Amino acid sequence: MTTTLDAPTAPADVVVISPTTGETVATLPSATPAEVDEAVERARAAQREWWSMTSDARSRVLWRWSELLDAHAEELATLDARCTGKVIRDGLSEVRTAARYARYWAGQTDKLFGDQLADVPGRLSYTIREPLGVFGVIIPWNAPSLGSVSRTLPPLGCGNAVIVKPSEFSPLSALRNAELAREAGFPENLYQVLVGAGEVGAQLSGHPGVDGISFTGSVTTGRKVNIAAAEGFKRTTLELGGKSPVVVFPDADLDDAALGILIGILMNAGQICAANSRLLVHESIADEFVERLLERAQRVKVGDPLDPETQVGPVVCQRQYDKVMDFIASAEAEGATVAVGGGRPVHLADDRGLYIAPTIITNVQPDMHVSREEVFGPVLGVSTFSTEEEAVALANDSEFGLSSYVWTSDAARLHRMAELIEAGVVHGNTYLVMDVQLPFGGFKSSGVSNAFGNEAIEACTQVKRITLRTGQGPLPSPWPGV
Ligand code: NAD
User: Are the beta carbons of 340 and 302 closer than 8 angstroms?
Assistant: First the structure.
């Protein structure tokens, strides 16, 4: 890629700062508007080459990519740890998951079926499924390696080219993944990465040469992307934020529930879209259950993300740290109680690193900021309910509808709750489960369309109907005499 850093319109460099040490990890030039245009043009040519290959050849390339991802798991996870503070054990698991996603899509390249349709005698109609062309894939920083693979595979598996716009906080693993893709045999420019901040994503979202957008990020940005993409009638998949409820009934296995909920809110320092951040616990067990949570929360190992023993690392950047601390302060100011955490973990030796101790806030009311907005940090808010109806009403009292969690040993109640909760995913007696063959998409402000499972094929292809007159004899005509 050519750079035009000295041009008057050159955007600011992307400077990646370690949230663990405060040191500069990398300084990279941002893509200029002209470079975005060039990337789109190159992607179009690469897409034609990709789609002209046999499905078997595309499959082999994706499979080879999965092998390379597995082989470079340590390296990719380390890049993510350095950029975002993601703990190395989670990063490794995410890269291995990414490799699994590539194997799955390697198996899908020959399964893009159309239909033969019922039609009148003497006419044959059928559909074929075609790629859209060029996809802009805009991703956040919270799972950089995984995102740059999992979000690109549905478009790639369906025969599209991708241009990835990683977060300005974590571009390194996407750049490395692009090199591995090339090594795996991807046609040149099929998988390109454009480094930059929001303006690069904005240009891609509105670019006339981009046919589809897969966006993962906040509701605020998702709305902008949606508007820009709508101008050109682009196909859009939006995977946005969440404020996921977790409901605990008295008949649940309370030890399992306490462990599951802590994992669900503390994994990746709470920076997960589907984090179970709103705990709704039945009033009859609330005190006892909170005690279990507090006791376990204090055993969680917070520290250096590169230490394999660490379970929770720092949050990604100073802005995120300040935002989380503001939420904690506002909850206290509004009358809630910080039962544990609420600041920097006391055991840390020096004051470097953007660490926030696992935080549990009780007496949270539904109208408090901490209850209504996405915190994206290791902060669990606790409220109580008295009836199942009230639990459903509280769970649904949110602009978000991404994931949800119910803990109970009553199977019928589990089904009832699953039918009534307004969310794209309902989990029973488990923390977050994601897998490539399982759909994952949000209701309400949490998203549009679905980036995983077979549903993703709909988002990445267009259906063409073909009708042929096969009957003999004169052309049937509604115009006698003409
Ligand atoms: P963000 O919305 O700030 O940024 C996401 C991406 O959009 C980044 O690459 C950013 O540079 C880019 N961007 C910024 N302005 C843009 C614009 N005007 N046009 C186009 N692109 C633009 O989100 P973030 O802080 O990076 O990530 C955290 C958010 O992502 C949270 O809200 C979280 O819930 C959400 N998220 C959702 C899912 C999901 O599957 N639903 C998964 C992970 C994260």
Answer: no
Ligand 1 pocket, residue 202 CB under 6 Å: yes
Reading the chain (482 residues) residue by residue, the pLDDT tens digits are 444 445 445 789 999 999 999 999 999 999 999 999 999 999 999 999 999 999 999 999 999 999 999 999 999 999 999 999 999 999 999 999 999 999 999 999 999 999 999 889 999 999 999 999 999 999 999 999 999 999 999 999 999 999 999 999 999 999 999 999 999 999 999 999 999 999 999 999 999 999 999 999 999 999 999 999 999 999 999 999 999 999 999 999 999 999 999 999 999 999 999 999 999 999 999 999 999 999 999 999 999 999 999 999 999 999 999 999 999 999 999 999 999 999 999 888 778 999 999 999 999 999 999 999 999 999 999 999 999 999 999 999 999 999 999 999 999 999 999 999 999 999 999 999 999 999 999 999 999 988 788 889 999 999 999 999 999 999 999 999 99
H-only helix segments in 232-364 = 254-266, 286-297, 318-333
C-alpha span between 294 and 434 (Å, rounded): 27
Domains and CATH numbers, the chain: 14-240+446-466 (3.40.605.10), 245-428 (3.40.309.10)
What's the whole-model pTM score?
A: 0.96
Any ligand 1 atom below 6 A from CB of 167: yes
Q: At what angle do helices 55-71 and 172-184 cross, to 10 degrees?
A: 130
Q: What is the largest CA-CA distance in the chain?
A: 95
Best mutation site among 172, 193, 218 for ligand 1 pocket (most ligand atoms within 8 Å of CB): 218
